[in-house]
Amino acid sequence: MIELYEYWIRDAGFDGFRIDTVKHVEVGFWQKWCPPVRACAAGQGKPGFFMFGEVLDGSDRLRGSYTGTKAGGPFALDSVLDYTLYSRTKSVYTQATGNTKQLEDRYTAIAANYDPCAQMRLVTFLDNHDQPRFLAAANANNNSDRLKVALAFLYTSRGIPCLYYGTEQAYNGGNDPYDREDMFAGQFEQGPSLGDNFNMTHPLFQWVARLNNLRRLYPALQTGLHVNVWSTTNGPGLFADARRLNKKEVVVVLNAAPSIQTLPGCPTLYPAGTRLVNLLDTNETATVSAGPQMPSITVPGTAAKIFLAQSQMLPLDPVVTCITPSHDSAGIGPAVLIVIKFSQPMDSRSVESAFSTIPVATGAFAWSASRETMPFTPGGGGPRANPGLGPDCPRSTNCGARRLPPLRLRVAI
Fold first, then answer.
1. Are 136 and 172 in contact (CB under 8 A)?
2. What is the DSSP letter of 77?
3. Per-residue b/e over 224-235, b at no fewer than 16 CB within 10 Å?
4. How many C-beta atoms lie closer than 10 Å to residue 349's C-beta?
5. Which residues does 13 contact at the CB level (< 8 Å), separation at least 6?
6. For the chain, which domains are there?
7. H/E element holding 50?
8. Residue 269 half-sphere exposure, CB side, CA atoms within 13 Å?
9. How many CA atoms lie within 13 A of 252 on its CB side?
10. pLDDT at residue 408, rounded to an integer
11. Which DSSP category does 93 fall into?
C-alpha cells in the first residue's frame, strides 16, 4: 500500500490525498502508512503534501484521534473532513432554521479534540457525494441566494474549503446516487445537470470564482486568526467574524435570515478614519469611528458582505462574463460568430492560446478597442472538419449550415 501511493506521488505528481473510509481501518495502519508516504512526497519537493481523511461520524473525539499524534504513536493524518461543522451549516444555511451561535460554539470545541496541526486545517464542506446536494436539501428548494451565503461562509471561515463539483452549476441531486450527477453528459442527470456543464458564465460559477479570488488575494481568509464578532442565539440571523493576519483584518458579515438584519458597531484593528469597502459590492463603503469601531452594518435578507480597508484592496483576476452562442448551445451552424466578453481588458495573445471549441474550430480572432470583447469567426472548415467547406465558400449562401447538420458548441478559455 505504501508503494502504491508513493507511485502516484512520483509518477503522477499528486499534491495531496483525500482518503476514504478512514474509520474502517485500524488506526495503527495510518500511523505506520502515513510517515513514509509523507517522506516520499517531501523527497519529491512536496514538503506540504496534505493528507486528510473521511471519518463519517458525529464524534469530534473519534475524528480527531486520526490527526497528528492524537491517538498516540507516530504522526497519522494531517486533517479530516469537518462533519460537525457540516451539520451546523446544514442547520444554519441549508435549512435556515438554526441559530448562528452554533457555528461559533463549534470552533470552541476544536482544540480539545484535534492535533494542533489540524485545528486550523479541518476540511470544510456544504455537501458531497454521500450527502444530498445543498439545493436539494434546502427547505426552500433551489434557493440559490441561500447557497451563495453558505458559499461565502465556506470560503471565508477557518479551515480548508472543499467544493463539491457541480455546486457551481446549481446541481440539485438528492440522495445517493442522484447526488453524483456527471459533470458532462452521463448518469444520474436531471434538471440543471443535464448535458455538458462546464459553464463559466453560470451565476454560481461567477460567485465561486470571486470567492476563490478573494481568498487568494487576502491571506487572512486562509490562515488568519478567527475572531468572533457577532452570532445570533435565537434562530436565523447574523454571523460575523474577523480574520486577522499581520495587522490586516477582513470582516465578514453573513445574514442567514430572510429579513434585513443590522450588525451593531463593533471593535476593529483599523484606526479611526479608515475607509472600509465591501469587497462584494465596492460601491458600498463605511468609515471607522473612534474606539476604533466599525459603524453598524445593515445586511439584506440572505446576503453577505465582506469589508476590508479600501487602501488594501487589490484588483480581482478577470473572468468570462458572457459567451454567445451560450455554452452547450445546440442546433447552431458551423460558421456562427462566437463572441466572448471579459470583466476587464485582456492580454490577447494568452487568451487566444487558451481558446478552444468542441467541435474543434479554426478561424480568425478580432478584439474590441478595449480588449474586453473577443469575436471569433470560424473559417477553414468551421467548427467541424469538412473538406467541402473552405474560406472561398461565400457566407451569404449559408453553405456551411446546408452541408452540415446543426452542431452543439462548447467553448473553453
1. yes
2. B
3. bebbebbbbeee
4. 8
5. none
6. 2-217 (3.20.20.80), 223-312 (2.60.40.1180), 320-412 (2.60.40)
7. strand 50-53
8. 16
9. 27
10. 66
11. I
Instruction: Retrieve residue 215's grid coordinates.
Output: 481568498
Enter the C-alpha cell of residue 35: 510517515
Stretches in the chain below the pLDDT threshold 50: 381-405
Provide φ and ψ at 411, rounded to 5°.
Answer: -120, 135
Return the ∠ at Cα 366 (arms to 399 and 357), rounded to 5°. Answer: 60
CA–CA gap between residue 66 and residue 114 (Å, rounded): 8
Strand partners for 52: 18, 79
Q: Which residues pair with 338 in a beta bridge?
A: 376
C-beta pairs of 315-319 under 8 Å, 24+ apart in sequence: 315/344, 316/210, 316/213, 316/214, 316/217, 316/343, 317/213, 318/342, 318/343, 318/344, 318/346, 319/200, 319/206, 319/209, 319/210, 319/343
Distance CA 242, CA 221 (A): 9
Task: Return the C-alpha cell found at 405.
Answer: 447538420
- CA distances to 109, 339, 380, 391, 393 from 399, rounded to whole Å, are 69, 21, 13, 11, 7
410 in Cβ contact with 197 (< 8 Å): no
Distances (CA, A) of 106 to 67, 137, 394: 18, 22, 67
Euclidean distance between CA atoms 245 and 253, whole angstroms: 18
> Closest Cα to residue 134, out of 200, 79, 230, 208?
208
Contact 50, 78 (CB under 8 A): yes
3-state secondary structure of 150: helix
The distance from CA 80 to its chain's CA centroid, rounded to whole angstroms, is 18
DSSP per-residue codes, 205-269: HHHHHHHHHHHHH-THHHHPEEEEEEE-SSSS-EEEEEEEETTEEEEEEEE-SSS-EEEPPEE-S
pLDDT digits (tens, 9 = 90+) for 328-350: 888 888 788 999 999 999 999 99
pLDDT digits (tens, 9 = 90+) for 124-177: 999 999 999 999 988 656 789 999 999 999 999 999 999 999 999 999 999 999
d(CA 117, CA 121): 7
